[in-house]
Amino acid sequence: MTRARARGADTVFYVLLAFTTLVFVAEILIVFLRAPVEARMGIVQKIFYFHVPSAYAMYLGAAACFFGSIGYLVRGTDGADAIARAGAEAAVVFGAIVLTTGPLWGAKAWGAFWTWDPRLTTELLSVLIYVAYLVLRSFAGDGSGERRFAAALGILGAANLPIIHFSVQKWGGQHPTVITGRGGGLQHPDMKIALTLGFVAFTLLAILLVWAAARVEMANSRLRRAEEDAIDLGLDTRTET
Amino acid sequence: MKEETAPAALPASPDERATTFQAVQGPQAEHYSGEVLLVCAYGVLWVILLCWVGLLWRKQSAMNARLEELDREIDKAAGAAAGGTPAPPKK
Fold this sequence. Notes:
Chain A has helices at residues 2-34, 48-75, 78-109, 118-139, 144-158, 160-171, 189-232.
C-alpha cells in the first residue's frame, strides 16, 4: 500500500515536471518572440517577466517554511520539518534570483546596480533571514531543540514578507509599482500573457523544487534514525558525529 | 602648439588624483547594453536553479552511498548471527 502510494507520488511528480517544462518553454518563446519591447526601457524590461515571478516564488518558499515550522511546533513530525527546510531553501534560491536580476535591470533603468531603496533593503533582509535559517540547520545539529529553534526562526522570517510587499506603498523609493493597485499596469495584451505565464511557470517550479527538496530531507531524517538504531545495536562501525 | 594636445588638467600631487574626474561630454555618456544585461539575468537565473538541483542531487547520492553501507553492515551482522557465514548481498 505504502509502495503503491510512493509510486503514485512519483508519477504525479514526473507529470508535474513535464508540465512545468512545457510551460517554461512557452514562457521563453512568448517573452523573447512575442512580447513587445518596452518603449522607454527597451529590451532590458523583459527581465521583469521572470524577476517578478521569482519574487512570488520566494514568497511561496517562505510560506512553505512558515507552515512547515508551525506544523513542526504543533505535531513534531519529520515531514513538517522537511517542508520547512525545503521552503527556506526555495526562499533563498528564488530570493537570490530576485537580488541578481533586479540589479541587472536597475543598472539600465536607474544607472546603478544597487540603491538602499526600502523594497531592495527589506528583500535583502528577508533573504538573509532564510540564509541564517539554513546555516543554523547545517551547523547546529539535528536535535529536536535545534529544530524547534529553527522553526521559531522560520515563523519570524515570514513576518518580514508583508513589509517587503507594502514597502513601496508605505515608504516610496525608486522601485516600480507597475502591477500594484497604484500602477498603470501592462499596456499590451502580450505583456500580460507573458507575465501571467511567468507566474504559472514559477509557481509550478517552486512546488516541484520544494517537493523534491522535502523528499530528500525526509529521506535524510529516516537515514539518520536508521544510523542511530544501527549504532545502538552495535551494527555500525561509524561513530556518531 | 604642443601645450594644446596635453591633458587638460594634470594632478599637481598624488593626493589630488581622486578629485579630478571629469564628466564625459555629449553622446559618449556611459550606457549599459540592455541585451547584455538581459542575457546575464537570464543566465544567472538558470545557473542558480541548476546549482540548487545539483546540490540536491549530491545530497541524494551521498544518502544512497550511506544506505548501501548500512545495508552491508546489516548483512554482515545477520550473517554472523546465522552461524558465521555472511548472508548473500541484497540486490
